[in-house]
């Protein structure tokens, strides 16, 4: 078998489900796929469990010395420490999964999340909290490895359907996590008749929600240990970008490639698109609740926390249901590239609606026109969310060979992680700066529009049909 040439003249393989080459869709391998949906819960469950009580925890340990203005600063340190550690290690874990397998790396990640949650609830100093979050971020490779697992057990015909189910575990975790963290923190004070006699819970008032979350994650670890099968392909005959074996001149052995060999133009263009889209998504998500809470006269909407919470929760539920019901159909009709470009382009009206909403609120108060524009903006955000499953198809297509799927995913995840660190920090800072007297109130919108145009520009570099360099069986 003659290996396909891989150079800049070789396009992505023709899309197997393109109109020119219709093929039957492969059924989803539900014997393993249900496990991958279950494995998506721990990462979101742990972070959402901590979110409701972290500000109060920071106050309780006394690191702010009673200065309320410093609470947000120390909460930000906790969040960014985990993200920074994750950014520094995610590629190495993803690459390791190409060598030792997906399952061992996933087991390590789940163990790290569970142990860090237990120890977080027992921490009494700010340094202890930071160390726990750093350890969790450094060892938690579950997001990247899960993407690779899905790539391993699906093909181009059923991967869109697989990712249409992704919102289900996310919605479960983002609903259950805040309930655990919000209702069960400080249980000796909240439920004195039940927990009032527990010296442990009086000394460590946040141990109960952390331990419950860790217990659920431990159960998931046990289920995965028993039921999850290794999906990493063994070195075998490959149809593209393999390593030629002189002993078997008729075969090309697929092996994990070194980093330099992974940095092809395809991988770099996909990574650039993923990073810029993620940068805008996180910047927008950080500005949106701040905009809602900012007084109308300063450029916001003057909404109280309950209304903001209802809006964001309803938006998340609608986005999840829409992706579940329509993403696979939209992909079959229009293709991944069209969905992706439409999603990033929707950032333009999303940003424009910010000043429009504020102008309407200034002129007419918070009435029907304002709520209509808010609804339109959140609906457009649904289009933006569709970019994520589409991008996974491009990442899989860009991998030089099947044995390097983990490392290729890791490269993309590093770029996304950097965007998730830079996006919220820069957008929040610019928004605060633009609100100060004497500064241009529209500065934040110029910044966001600039990111959108950058994301659209990189999206145009993507191929028309993402397809995959499949190893022959």
Structural topology:
Blueprint: H1 30-39, H2 41-50, H3 54-60, H4 71-100, H5 102-121, H6 126-139, H7 142-153, H8 159-164, H9 167-184, H10 187-190, H11 192-195, H12 199-203, H13 207-227, E1 243-244, E2 252-253, H14 259-262, H15 265-293, H16 305-334, H17 336-345, H18 347-364, H19 368-385, H20 387-398, H21 405-435, H22 443-459
Antiparallel strand pairs: 1-2
Task: Please explain how this structure is put together.
The structure is a single chain. This protein is mainly α. It is 70% helix and 1% strand. The chain has 22 helices and 2 strands. The chain has helices at residues 30-39, 41-50, 54-60, 71-100, 102-121, 126-139, 142-153, 159-164, 167-184, 187-190, 192-195, 199-203, 207-227, 259-262, 265-293, 305-334, 336-345, 347-364, 368-385, 387-398, 405-435, 443-459; strands spanning 243-244, 252-253. A two-stranded antiparallel ribbon has the order 1-2. Strand 1 and strand 2 (252-253) form a beta hairpin. The longest helix has 31 residues, at 405-435. The radius of gyration is 23 Å and the shape is globular.
């Amino acid at each position: 078998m003659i290996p396909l040439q891989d150079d800049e003249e070789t396009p992505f393989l023709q899309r197997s489900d393109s109109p020119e080459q219709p093929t039957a869709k492969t059924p989803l391998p539900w014997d393993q796929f249900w496990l991958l949906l279950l494995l998506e819960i721990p990462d979101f469950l742990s972070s959402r469990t901590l979110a409701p009580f972290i500000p109060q925890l920071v106050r309780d340990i006394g690191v702010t010395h009673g200065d309320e203005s410093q609470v947000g600063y120390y909460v930000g340190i906790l969040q960014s420490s985990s993200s920074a550690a994750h950014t520094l290690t995610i590629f190495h874990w993803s690459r390791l999964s190409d060598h030792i397998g997906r399952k061992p790396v996933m087991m390590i990640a789940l163990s790290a999340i569970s142990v860090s949650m237990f120890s977080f609830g027992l921490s009494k100093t700010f340094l202890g909290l930071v160390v726990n979050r750093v350890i969790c971020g450094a060892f938690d490779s579950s997001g990247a490895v899960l993407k690779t697992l899905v790539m391993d057990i699906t093909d181009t015909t059923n991967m869109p359907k697989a990712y249409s189910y992704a919102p289900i575990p996310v919605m479960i975790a983002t609903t259950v996590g805040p309930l655990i963290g919000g209702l069960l923190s400080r249980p000796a004070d909240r439920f004195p008749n039940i927990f009032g006699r527990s010296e442990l819970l009086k000394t460590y008032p946040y141990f109960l929600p952390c331990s419950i979350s860790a217990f659920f994650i431990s159960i998931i670890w046990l289920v995965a240990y028993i039921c999850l099968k290794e999906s990493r392909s063994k070195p075998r005959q490959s149809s593209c970008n393999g390593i030629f074996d002189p002993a078997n001149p008729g075969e090309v052995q697929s092996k994990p490639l070194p980093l330099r060999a992974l940095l092809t133009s395809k991988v770099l263009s996909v990574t650039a698109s993923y990073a810029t889209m993620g940068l805008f998504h996180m910047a927008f998500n950080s500005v949106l609740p701040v905009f809602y809470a900012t007084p109308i006269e300063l450029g916001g909407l003057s909404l109280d926390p309950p209304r903001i919470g209802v809006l964001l929760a309803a938006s998340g539920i609608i986005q999840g249901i829409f992706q579940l019901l329509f993403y696979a159909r939209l992909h079959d009709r229009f293709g991944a590239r069209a969905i992706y470009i439409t999603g990033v382009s929707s950032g333009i009206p999303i940003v424009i609606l910010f000043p429009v909403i504020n102008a309407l609120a200034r002129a007419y108060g918070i009435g029907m026109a304002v709520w209509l524009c808010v609804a339109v903006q959140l609906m457009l955000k649904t289009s933006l969310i569709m970019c994520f499953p589409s991008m996974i198809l491009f990442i899989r297509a860009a991998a030089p060979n099947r044995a390097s799927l983990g490392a290729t995913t890791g490269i993309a995840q590093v770029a996304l992680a950097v965007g998730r660190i830079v996006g919220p920090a820069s957008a929040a800072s610019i928004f605060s700066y633009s609100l100060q007297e004497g500064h241009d109130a529209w500065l934040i919108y110029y910044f966001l529009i600039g990111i959108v145009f950058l994301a659209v520009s990189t999206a145009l570099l993507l191929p028309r049909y993402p397809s995959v360099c499949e190893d022959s069986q």
